[in-house]
Amino acid sequence: MSLSSVDNLPHNLILVTIAAVSLGLRLHQIDSPQHVCWDEVHFGKYASYYINKTLFFDVHPPLGKIILAFVGRMTGYDGKFPFNKPGDSLERVHYVGMRQASALFGAAVVPLSSAIVWELSSSLTAMLLTSVLVMSDTALTVMSRFILLDSFLLFFIFLSCYLYVKHSKSPAFERQWWLYLCGCGVALACSLGVKLVGVFVIAHIGLCVIKRLWAMANQKEIPLEKFVQHVVARIYTLICVPIFVYCIIFVIHFVTLRKSGVGDGFHSSAFQSTIDGNPLYHINIPQYIAYGSEITLKNYRPNGGYLHSHPFMYPHNTAIQQVTTYGLRDLNNRWIVVPEDSEDWTTERSSVVFVKDGDLIRLKHTQTHKYLHSDDKSSAMTKIHNEVGAYSASQVSPDENNLFRIKVTSGLQDEGRITPIHTVLQLVHQTQDCSLESRGKKLPAWGQEQKEVTCNPDKIVTSSSQWNVEEVFDSRLPNIRLDWKHSKPGFLFKLMETHTLMVSNNRDLRPKADTEFISRPWMWPIAHRGQLFSVEPHILMLGNPATHWMILVLAVPVFIVFLCDMVKQQRSKAYHTNPSIEDMAIQNTYSSLGFLLSGYAMHYLPFYPMTRVLYAHHYLPAYVFSAMFTGMSVDHLLRRLAASSLIGKVLSCSIYGTLCSVSLLSFYILSPIVYGYDSDAEDNPMTFYKLNDYWDF
């Protein structure tokens, strides 16, 4: 049978067969191991939070976790298992349904990627080679057998690409054209709704759309009115529709997580005031702060802590008491607001004078009776900033270095008065002309590993240099419900704050010193090292070395032939010869390959400049693109070889069979790392295949 004769087979039947085999590989022994594996400790726990409706914070958007929670609830999981640590037994937990959901979405990636190649090439052999390369990857199979997010991410990424390709082949403005384009927009929103790296597929599709519109602008047969319609249609379906769907995902997230939980402290005071069960929910406190009021100040930075002091001195300056930010509510977070010209102004004083924007104040620590202080000495950690501490009046009196000016930057105020929770302000030092700031830098053990507070001479208005009063304790002032007087933060406020938190915490993810392997992007295409999922049975997420190396090797002849074709095309232009039908078909093939190569670059290259901690599973979307590129490009070369002669036909069939056989055989050999084996046994089946010392077999 020749390669061309295979194209006569029904491709839909083959896709169904591919899907069934892919699903079977993932569902096989999916209940094993019966304990928490790797990041299931996070995403299983997050599913529990959704089921219990308690607020938590995660660096990823909510869609994947919502799907896990929904499936878990529908399959009997009650959300009571804590998922404390890897290795915790799951024997009495209904966890299999969540693993099966991951397997179902992960299995769908194989027929989706194969269908994309079919739509681009109309070649069943290219589709089959792609399916074998994707199905044979051990890392993809492992990742889709556990309670993780990557299966959902991969599914929506390649669903987006499939629908975009189908749209590009449909007649403009027909019903199917609109359906595919709207579906692509929804899938793009869902990709971003699972993980922020979903932005890569948005960029990929966006560039393809811009390229297509640019080509249309140069076509005389398309009038200006029709061109404008094309632009508007894409704005509506690929911008407006995704934004709407993405917002709906977060509406579900906020409505579901309405109870106070472990995520409260990550959010601002205003956000916390909307959470049922939080101390700030329906809180009754004074509407304004006055001199003598006892207050707490919360840093406005994402996950910012409370201004805090404790009876410990700086090791380099034993005369000054440490001032830090602390993430939990504590008595040491309380400060008394004192005017600039008085040493004794407390809540027992009968007269009430409200604090206003522009006032010079001093802050007296309630527990240690020392004043917030800064001078020209360098801070312990951030040397370019001034040090902030606390002095007692008896040590330095009078001292202008205890004076800070209030500068309101945003939020509610009434005639300059400061409103708890809603007024955002800076504290600018009177003599040093610097602003009180906390950038979240952790102090060493001598600082109780709390966050450093400094005085920044630049006085730049950033989230780390802004504060808000959260609680007010003053018996002279009447308490009111602030949410009656002031409206609660709305959806857009909560959406923006959540994304600020996700981006900042994502950026701050760093490897744990000396305890965590640092994975870098150059390692991923060569399957340099995997990620251990389970010790016993031993399960390792490692890309199939045979398929990874095969893809790299096959890229060489593809690139050489491409260069030759480009030279030939240029020579044809030089002699003013019209391209033949064969040459035009080759150009169309390269255009389709460019779509896949662009997808690979978009999902791989951005990881190089990233400083956050990376793992091998970040390569999975790029790997699928590389498998599709290899399946289609190699099929293209083999068909040209088969058309040259009878020997070429035999040789092309042999090469095709060899590639498929090596891929499937390598998966069979490596299957123990997918389904688990005893790595301590004397007859360890994987020892013989350990070609790399970094492979944890």
Q: Can you tell me about this structure?
A:
The chain is an alpha+beta fold. The chain has two domains: 3-250 and 516-689, no CATH class; 270-502, Trefoil (Acidic Fibroblast Growth Factor, subunit A), CATH 2.80.10.50. The protein is 45% helix and 15% strand. It has helices at 3-6, 11-27, 40-52, 63-74, 96-121, 124-135, 138-143, 150-168, 175-194, 199-217, 224-256, 269-272, 482-485, 491-508, 545-574, 581-604, 620-642, 646-675, and strands at residues 284-286, 294-299, 306-314, 317-326, 334-339, 360-365, 371-378, 386-391, 404-414, 417-429, 435-437, 451-452, 454-456, 467-473, 479-481, 531-534, 539-541. The strands form four sheets. Strands 3, 4, 7, 8, 11, 12 and 13 form a seven-stranded antiparallel beta sheet that branches. β7 and β8 form a beta hairpin. α8 packs antiparallel against α9 and α10 packs antiparallel against α16 (581-604). It is elongated. It starts with a helix and ends in a 22-residue tail after the last helix. The model has no long low-confidence stretch (mean pLDDT 91).
Name the features.
Trefoil (Acidic Fibroblast Growth Factor, subunit A), 7-stranded antiparallel β-sheet, 697 residues, alpha+beta
In short:
The chain is elongated and about 105 Å long.
Radius of gyration: 31 Å
Mean pLDDT: 91
- Distance from N terminus to C terminus (CA atoms, Å) equals 40 Å
Helix content: 40-55%
Shape: elongated
Structure classification:
alpha+beta
User: How many strands in all?
Assistant: 17
- Poorly predicted runs of 5 or more residues: none
* Count of individual domains: 2
Number of helices: 18
Beta-strand fraction estimate: 5-15%
Major sheet attributes: 7 strands, antiparallel
